[in-house]
């Protein structure tokens, strides 16, 4: 794997966010000087977005997974427009790694052939009203609007506590489709299926800037520490976490009936922000959708 930074040809590792040792050290020491496509400042902290070149091995790998995971026939002509690596502040990333190590110590998942902490790559769709990848004059600005779930994720990760004060009243990860129903409780929701996450970005859709016949949305691809997941058989809207001994809640296909409706596509609910790390920011388009 080659470093994702443009013009750098040094070797890199996925676990190091596709940065070579030199750029990894730059990011850890001073995120404000990491070469980036888009740099967002939040107080004294920075988030860097680095675009993955179209046609590169990394782009093709993410594109292949995204399309393979689009299993529900709810959109036509789906196409990825851009993919960015997300570099949150190193402190946020380290908190995630620390929690992952704690979960691994308890569950010994690597010995079972799983990833550390039973880490999974899952999708999160949300209303993202900002146009930072489409408007080159405002790429460092976020709208911080009450209905823009993407703002808080790009600046703070999946930290719900950051979303509760007046400046960020929206609770990241909750359903933004005007529904109060939370099948697995008050958590952050993720899914293995890009087609399912697609639904939750409805409020942030925009006309594609280079083709007015297409519509664009944003989706986050995230690393999630699933650990030991609880599998409930009924709806638990008021849950604030899984039962003792579990790390997350797994909404398995066919479980948790609500009236005559059961889960058709699985989902996970996570109840702590340091178990979630957004790693890819995906802009995609489609010609039509049914929701």
TrEMBL record:
InterPro entries: ARTD-AVP, Poly(ADP-ribose)pol_cat_dom. Residues 35-291 form the PARP catalytic domain. Coiled coil: none annotated. One of its GO terms (cellular component) is nucleus. SUPFAM superfamilies: ADP-ribosylation. It comes from the Eukaryota. This is 14074_t:CDS:1.
């Amino acid at each position: 794997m080659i470093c994702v930074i443009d013009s750098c040809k040094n070797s890199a590792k996925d676990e190091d966010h596709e940065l070579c040792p030199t750029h990894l050290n730059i990011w850890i020491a001073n995120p404000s000087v990491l070469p980036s496509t888009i740099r967002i400042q939040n107080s004294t902290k920075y988030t860097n977005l680095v675009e993955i070149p179209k046609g590169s091995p990394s782009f093709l790998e993410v594109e292949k997974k995204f399309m393979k995971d689009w299993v529900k026939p709810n959109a036509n002509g789906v196409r990825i427009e851009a993919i960015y690596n997300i570099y949150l502040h190193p402190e946020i990333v380290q908190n995630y790694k620390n929690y992952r190590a704690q979960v691994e110590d308890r569950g010994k998942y690597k010995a079972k052939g799983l990833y550390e902490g039973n880490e999974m790559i899952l999708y999160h769709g949300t209303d993202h009203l900002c146009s930072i990848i489409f408007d080159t004059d405002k790429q460092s600005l976020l709208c911080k609007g009450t209905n823009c779930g993407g703002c808080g994720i790009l600046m703070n990760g999946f930290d719900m506590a950051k979303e509760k004060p007046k400046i960020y009243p929206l609770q990241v990860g909750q359903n933004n489709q005007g529904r109060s129903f939370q099948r697995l409780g008050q958590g952050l929701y993720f899914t293995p299926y890009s087609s399912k996450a697609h639904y939750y970005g409805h409020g942030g859709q925009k006309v594609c800037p280079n083709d007015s016949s297409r519509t664009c949305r944003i989706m986050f691809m995230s690393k999630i520490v699933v650990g030991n997941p609880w599998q409930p058989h009924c709806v638990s809207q008021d849950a604030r976490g899984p039962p003792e001994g579990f790390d997350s809640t797994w909404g398995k296909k066919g479980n948790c009936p609500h009236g005559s409706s059961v889960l058709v596509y699985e989902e996970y609910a996570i109840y702590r922000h340091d178990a979630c790390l957004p790693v890819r920011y995906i802009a995609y388009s489609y010609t039509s959708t049914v929701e």
